[in-house]
Amino acid sequence: MEQATMASCAQALSSSSLSRSPGALLGSSRLTLCTRGVFSPVCVSMRKGFRGRSFCVIRASVTGGKEAETARLATNDGSAQSASPVSAKDESRVAGSQNGVAVATETTVSITVVGASGDLAKKKIFPALFALYYEGCLPKHFTVFGFARSKMNDESLREMISGTLTCRIDQRENCGDKQEEFLKRCFYHSGQYSSEESFGELSKKLHEHEGDRVANRLFYLSIPPDVFVDVARCSSLAASSANGWTRVIVEKPFGRDSESSAELTRGLKTYLNEDQIYRIDHYLGKELVENLSVLRFSNLVFEPLWSRQYIRNVQFIFSEDFGTEGRGGYFDNYGIIRDIMQNHLLQILALFAMEPPVSLDAEDIRNEKVKVLRSMRVLDTDNVVVGQYKGHTRGGVRYPAYIEDKTVPNNSITPTFAAAALFIDNARWDGVPFLMKAGKALHTKRAEIRVQFRHVPGSLYKRSFGADIDQATNELVIRVQPDEAIYLKINNKVPGLGMRLDRSNLNLHYADRYNREIPDAYERLLLDAIEGERRLFIRSDELDAAWALFTPLLKELEKRKVAPELYPYGSRGPVGAHYLAAKYNVRWGDNSSETSDSV
Ligand SMILES: NC(=O)C1=CN([C@@H]2O[C@H](COP(=O)(O)OP(=O)(O)OC[C@H]3O[C@@H](n4cnc5c(N)ncnc54)[C@H](OP(=O)(O)O)[C@@H]3O)[C@@H](O)[C@H]2O)C=CC1
Ligand SMILES: O=C1O[C@H](COP(=O)(O)O)[C@@H](O)[C@H](O)[C@H]1O
């Protein structure tokens, strides 16, 4: 790959450049000696990765055709990146060289989107793969396969995908040509999800494209959860790579509760090693969620304040201004707590509240996330409010109720809104309410983290604010989407001869600061999976800890058939959310006037 292309790839997808410091590479003791240009005792050889960076091939043991090892790289320029991982078999090919000097063999990656005919594949996965191709982030040799039961062929798959591909607004050169080139690398295989024969046929087709290269295979399970294990079985038994790694990305939902999640994990682990399983939570791939650790751990001004001593409460807010349109069938079986809170918001909370990890290595970060999740108080119904949207007419337009969705039973009590107060019973966070709020069909589409600080002790300017603590205190807002921004509300003097105080935002507004499009979360996560970087994927013990917090509540809500509080489509949600916050002396930050919040 050419230098220019590599540079743009590294820049555009810097899950990488901002947060993967050299420390990230050195976190694993096995790899500590594997540094830039150094041929260490643990390095079998130095190789060039497909982003052109040198990396160390390390010794690994082979475990029955399953992925056994990943390698890390040290970059040519000293900045750290994760490398194209090297499987044990890949290594053995490389290590089987003359005079102990490795001869690199060409590698290829085949990405199979299982459930290629579906909504997520069309909306997110194929466009993300194209974006990676466009940015020069995919290896030189790659193939994309769509797999599903629908009767399609290569041409109809290409036609389906072509309507969804877009180029970055800020770099549209050769967009059409690039799309054509990409589509030529896309193929389709129709088969059954539980048929090893179908996957065997797929494997043959993959092999035709792979030739005698080291063949790495990634399967993206973009299918309903009841066929996850079937596909894991068939892909593992009939379509695993013979000489490279095989990895499987699994979409949520990872079960409905602790038991079903454990059963799914058992099922997957019958056919795959934990290190082959990439449980995706696409919120972890969002730019500002990635930036959370950078903000905390690379700025002196934040981390010292990050505790009960200075923080009054923290709020994690998700809202959508549309209902379940088209996804009611799935949604009704899960509800908003399982759809958004137990995964997306809880993952962000864990990153927010964890102790500083030993390094940025995936296992170090995930260890800290598990610890903080396990320090949390199990949720109960007293600390939760549930709601469901009802129909509403505004400006002559009728917005339907949740139960008017044809795929939803008309007596459904599934929550489309929930607010919850959570607590972390550890030394850092004792007594600090962590509030979550998530809802569909609300007045706005937004995801944000709000950190409300305590008041200034003995403030000299107390009189200027009166008794309104929210007026007087600082608030840090991390707006994940839309219009990404990080801003800190501060108090300042209004210029002039008098002494009047004002509230202003110190703000990092991404659109003003960076003249480039922010990559979609799926791009970052797909690239990470290809590179064997697991930091942004959920480990099974994290998942267990997350379910342990929510399962008793979910069971209780279902057992007691708790009726959700109805709220009008397009409103701010049920009033019960305000009472819940008030119980802990908190006011939701997103209810302050829009003007004081805009950046
Ligand atoms: N759509 C979204 O925005 C999001 C989706 N997800 C998750 O991603 C996965 C895929 O989502 P999505 O694309 O919306 O799902 P779809 O309902 O569109 O299903 C994907 C494909 O799976 C096949 N399929 C559908 N129903 C069944 C069934 N009952 N048994 C076997 N195969 C079936 C269909 O392909 P065919 O009939 O051709 O085989 C379909 O095209 C799911 O696990 C979902 O929960 C996660 C986050 C967001
Ligand atoms: O996982 C899910 O996420 C989407 C919201 O994702 P976003 O990236 O568009 O914010 C949500 O609509 C869906 O219900 C849920 O399953």
UniProtKB/TrEMBL annotation:
Pfam families: G6PD_C, G6PD_N. One of its GO terms (biological process) is pentose-phosphate shunt, oxidative branch. Keywords: Carbohydrate metabolism, Glucose metabolism, NADP, Oxidoreductase. It is an enzyme of class 1 (oxidoreductase). Its EC number is 1.1.1.49. The gene is LOC112291715. It comes from Physcomitrium patens (Spreading-leaved earth moss). The keyword Oxidoreductase applies. This is Glucose-6-phosphate 1-dehydrogenase. Pathway: Carbohydrate degradation; pentose phosphate pathway; D-ribulose 5-phosphate from D-glucose 6-phosphate (oxidative stage): step 1/3.
